[in-house]
Write a structure and sequence with these properties.
The structure holds two protein chains of two kinds.
Chain A: H1 3-9, H2 13-24, E1 56-57, H3 67-84, E2 121-122, E3 125-126, E4 133-139, H4 144-162, E5 167-173, H5 178-181, H6 185-198, H7 202-211, H8 224-233, H9 238-246, H10 251-259, E6 267-268, E7 270-273, E8 276-278, H11 289-299, H12 304-307, E9 316-320, H13 328-334, H14 339-344, E10 364-368, H15 369-372
Parallel strand pairs in A: 4-5
Antiparallel strand pairs in A: 1-6, 2-3, 3-5, 4-7, 7-8, 9-10
Chain B: H1 2-8, H2 11-18, H3 23-52, H4 55-74, H5 83-101, H6 125-140, H7 143-153, H8 159-166, H9 170-185, H10 188-191
Classes of the chains: A alpha+beta, B mainly alpha.
């Protein structure tokens, strides 16, 4: 043991705590100034919304279930809904932007988690069309467990699989709750979402839908008026959206899709990874991120890891990050390529497991040659801007 | 807004807070709470940020914590003693709620935080460095030891108050601190 090590082991608690305090103090610049205090705006003594419905079960018989299977189905359903207890125990915190409202009128709140807009999308498909794995997700916009998926699991899937172009996610409608209360709000919400898809804004709009669903799954949240207001808030082109929604343009295809859904589907949200149904999650409830991720990993081509980033000289530009670079997306933008392209060209370690914040001056990043060479050479490469 | 305040706090409750009988006194309550808010916002935010490691979540939780504190304050359920431990207690419940909701029962490694939570565009060197360090710190220490050090960072909280927040005794707080120090002593790069 050298002198230095002796020194460390002999350090007093005060030394250690002082050192930790000093390091923690680096957080100070990250703290914002308090926003103006608005009494009442946030004083929601009634924020708790009670229990959640964990998994929406498709009613037996609704889409051709026979009486024979009903008994088995009930057993499965019980297992699923009991297993899900506890994993969703607490009420949803009300979004900070909730505004006090007159009784009977649901406030419109901004989504707390927003689907990134810099990813390739095509209607209800999110991600690169050529991604090796497809995750089909069946949802009902009124289903609270679907919202949980949307807020908790989807962002992680996007960061870890969609962004690196390993996965594309396709949403489908399974109208479950309408048939339970005799309304058409699930269908209308799905129609509105497809109207948004017509404008290429399905993903933005569905964030708003889920954020504004009824926490009790009761009707009233997705009236045509409210769907219209949500569209306005989501920034849709209202001249196209309104006629689309009021005419029920997509209703028929939504109902057809729902009825033609695989018969193995008993509830929402349900998942298929490359066409294979993903059973209930480990706890018996809705599949968690870990469940879905494991299924995706298993479906990913085995050779991908070894063949993906052979960085051959001459086909890549070796770019050294400067202190002016703020983020990987900034660097990708500089070369006119997408983050996914950038990521495919680099060893995984470059991306610190997709934490795009971690870049540092002097770090080496490979820019795929074919993506930038057809355009005139980028002047900022050699002559700094 | 004043109307809301008067409705929420009963007359009796208002008296308990400070012999309030008129709208002017209600404004007095608002003013004293606002002073607390301005004084402590960053403290509560820091705690929430270090516990949740997401600026977005920290902002939500801080806003909600003060919202709840205000409702309690107006209805006469303000702090029995010091305001700060009381605020932290409210915040801590919200942090735990949110942690459960996100199934982050144990702390996620930094790598699994995704970019939607930490927008890449406002990354700067100091920020990145801090989170890299914090990730290391968080990986070495179990959750409770970590939390106790985060609370200890707040110089105006003493061990009995930290114990109150965590629901343990002051001596249990000191023992957590000692264990944390023992762990950290073996990892000098975290504190040197």
């Amino acid at each position: 043991m050298n002198e230095n090590e002796m020194d460390v082991l002999g350090a007093s608690d005060d030394d250690v705590l002082g050192g930790v305090r000093k390091r923690i103090s680096a957080v100070e610049p990250l703290l914002p100034q308090p926003p103006a205090w608005k009494p009442g705006a946030d004083a929601r003594a009634t924020g708790e919304q009670g229990g959640r419905v964990n998994l929406q079960i498709r009613p037996a018989g609704a889409f051709g279930f026979g009486g024979v299977v009903a008994v088995t189905l009930v057993a499965v359903i019980l297992a699923i809904s009991f297993g899900a207890q506890g994993s969703h125990g607490t009420g949803r915190p009300s979004p900070a932007s909730a505004t006090p409202v007159a009784s009977g009128v649901l406030p419109i709140v901004a989504p707390s988690v927003v689907t990134p807009t810099d990813l390739p999308t095509d209607g209800r498909t999110l991600g690169n069309q050529d991604a090796p794995v497809t995750l089909d997700v069946w949802v009902d916009f009124r289903c609270t467990a679907c919202e949980d998926f949307n807020v908790e699991t989807l962002p992680q899937l996007i960061a870890n699989y969609v962004r690196p172009a390993k996965l594309k996610i396709v949403y489908h409608d399974l109208l479950v709750i309408d048939s339970q209360d005799g309304t058409t709000e699930s269908r209308d919400a799905a129609d509105a979402a497809l109207c948004a898809a017509d404008q290429g804004k399905f993903w933005a709009y569905q964030d708003w839908l889920f954020a504004n669903q009824s926490p009790t799954e009761k009707p009233g949240a997705f009236t045509l008026d409210r769907l219209t207001e949500l569209a306005q808030r989501a920034g849709l082109d209202m001249t196209a959206f309104e006629p689309c929604l009021t005419s029920g343009k997509h209703n028929a295809e939504i109902v057809a899709e729902s009825q033609l859904a695989p018969s193995s589907l008993i509830g929402v949200p349900s998942f298929f990874v490359n066409g294979t149904a993903l059973g209930p999650g480990a706890g018996g409830g809705v599949s968690t991120y870990a469940d879905v991720a494991a299924a995706i990993d298993a479906a990913l081509p085995k050779t991908a890891a070894s063949s993906a980033p052979p960085v051959a000289a001459g086909t890549f530009l070796v770019y050294t990050v400067s202190s002016k670079d703020k983020s990987l997306s900034g660097i990708a933008g500089k070369f006119g390529i997408s983050l996914a392209q950038l990521e495919l060209a680099n060893p995984l370690s470059t991306f610190a497991s997709h934490n795009y914040d971690i870049i540092y001056a002097g770090m080496t990043i490979y820019i795929p040659w074919q993506t930038w060479v057809p355009t005139p050479p980028v002047p900022s490469l050699t002559t700094s801007p | 807004m004043e109307v809301v305040t008067v409705e929420r706090g009963s007359q009796e409750a208002l008296e308990r807070v400070g012999s309030a009988r008129s709208g002017a006194d209600v404004e007095g309550i608002d003013a004293s709470f606002e002073a607390l808010y301005r004084q402590r916002y960053r403290d509560v935010y820091r705690y929430a940020l270090l516990m949740l490691r997401s600026a977005e979540d920290a902002e939500d939780v801080t806003g909600e914590a003060f919202g709840r504190a205000y409702a309690a304050w107006c209805s006469g359920h303000g702090p029995a003693g010091q305001a700060l431990p009381w605020l932290f207690l409210i915040t801590r419940r919200l942090v735990i709620d949110r942690t459960r909701r996100r199934r982050l029962l144990s702390w996620l490694p930094l790598a699994s935080l995704h970019s939607t939570h930490e927008p890449a565009d406002d990354a700067d060197t100091g920020r990145t460095e801090f989170w890299l360090w914090f990730d290391r710190f968080a990986r070495e220490l179990p959750a409770r030891q970590r939390e106790v050090l985060i609370l200890r960072y707040q110089r105006d909280l003493d061990d009995p108050q930290i114990g109150e927040i965590l629901g343990i005794s002051a001596s249990a707080v000191r023992s957590l601190v000692a264990r944390a120090c023992a762990t950290l002593r073996r990892n000098p790069e975290i504190w040197r």
